[in-house]
Amino acid sequence: MIDLETIVGDAKASFSAALTPADLENAKALFLGKTGRVTELMKGMAQLSVDEKKSRGAAINLSKQAIEAALNDRRQELADAELQKQLKSEALDVSLPGRQHTQGGLHPVSLTMERIEAIFGSMGFDVAQGPEIETDWFNFTALNTPEDHPARSMHDTFYVEGGTESAPNLLRTHTSPMQIRYAVQHVKKHRATIDAGHTMPEIRVIAPGRTYRVDSDATHSPMFHQCEGLWIGENVSFKDLKFVFTDFCRTFFESDDLVLRFRPSFFPFTEPSAEIDIQFQTGPLAGGWLEVAGSGQVHPNVVRNMGLDPEKYIGFAFGMGPDRLTMLRYGVSDLRLFFDGDVRFLSQFQS
Ligand code: PHE
Q1: For residues 286 and 160, what is the distance between their CA atoms, to the nearest angstrom?
Q2: What residue's CA is closest to ligand 1, atom 7?
Q3: pLDDT at 117
Q4: Residue 175 CA: which ligand 1 atom is closest?
Q5: What's CA 141's distance to the chain center, in Å?
Q6: DSSP code string of 63-89
Q7: Of all protein residues, whose CA lies closest to atom 12 belonging to ligand 1?
């Protein structure tokens, strides 16, 4: 006769070995199922006497109860394990720092450009864009720049393919070509008015954008920004230039005490000409001067190349450096930092 304890032991062992509820149900069938070992024992009792049946039956029942108890324990264990697994996978660690949504920002020079456009916009200036690859005509010749002018030399200008042998195309060295491009369009638009002998509406425009020169140090970069300004009318004087530019700078830097210096200078396309310097208010260069613009009364030859009569129309132009305005505004001493693309530097400038 098979020992009941052995069967109970076997049942417990195979229940423990079951790692899933399905395995456990299969193991149960081997002992308690229709043809299971305990069921078979019950069937075997048929030949026993009444007394034997009584004692044997009671013993088998105890074993059956022990097996059922083991089965229920194991069911509970598996269910607990499953729950633990689920809890673990869905665990929420509330002590973790939250995910940061880092927000991008505009480049400091872009912030400056936006400021420039807003301030000049409020003074009635249009904003124009032009090509960065220019012809020799717009960049030099139309701006009264003689063929032997040093700015044309290979040392300053990036020449590119296209154009003619004697007048190759180039990366614009300044935004001044926009004076001609914009004025020519303006004159075309008001041709009928001009031809009828009337006065055309004034030209009042700024032209911000990228410019290029073979140059690199703390205050020069091969790619840099300029913003051209042009105001042409019947009676626009150097005094207006001084007023407009000073007013712009004081608004830009939000400082009525800002000190500007108009230094006599030379440009082929203006006469008289001045360079404009601003004093650093903050940062390591406080007190020092930084040149921020070239300017002057537009030369009669340039007015003529715009398609206008220099006896009737006169005005001023300036070309300023937004990169340098940005240096002054934030007290940055090396302009190249703006173009290194280091996020640790750039992320300090949020509007
Ligand atoms: N284009 C000149 C430069 O880049 C600046 C300038 C613009 C000077 C307009 C006078 C008038 O240096």
Answers
A1: 40
A2: 319
A3: 98
A4: 1
A5: 38
A6: HHHHHHHHHHHHHHHHHHHHHHHHHHH
A7: 294
**Whole-prediction pTM:** 0.72
Element (H, E) at 23: helix 21-32
Q: Residues lining ligand 1, CB < 6 A? A: 174, 176, 267, 270, 273, 294-296, 317-319
Q: How many Å lie between the centroid of ligand 1 and the Cα of residue 82? A: 77
Superfamily of domain 108-349: Bira Bifunctional Protein; Domain 2 (3.30.930.10)
Calculate how far, in angstroms, residue 173's C-alpha sits from the geometric centre of ligand 1. Answer: 10
Residue 275 alpha carbon to ligand 1 centre in Å: 9
- DSSP secondary structure letter of residue 281: -
Q: In what order do the strands lie in the sheet with 126-127?
A: 126-127, 203-212, 223-233, 314-320, 289-298, 270-279, 260-267
Q: How far is the CA of 252 from the centre of ligand 1 (A)?
A: 20
Each residue's pLDDT tens digit, 279-301: 877 777 788 898 999 999 999 99
CA-nearest residue for atom 4, ligand 1, is 174
Q: Which of 57-66, 145-154, 180-189 shows the lowest per-residue confidence on average (mean pLDDT)?
A: 145-154
Confidence band (pLDDT; 50, 70, 90) for 324? Answer: very high
Domains of the chain, residue spans: 4-89, 108-349
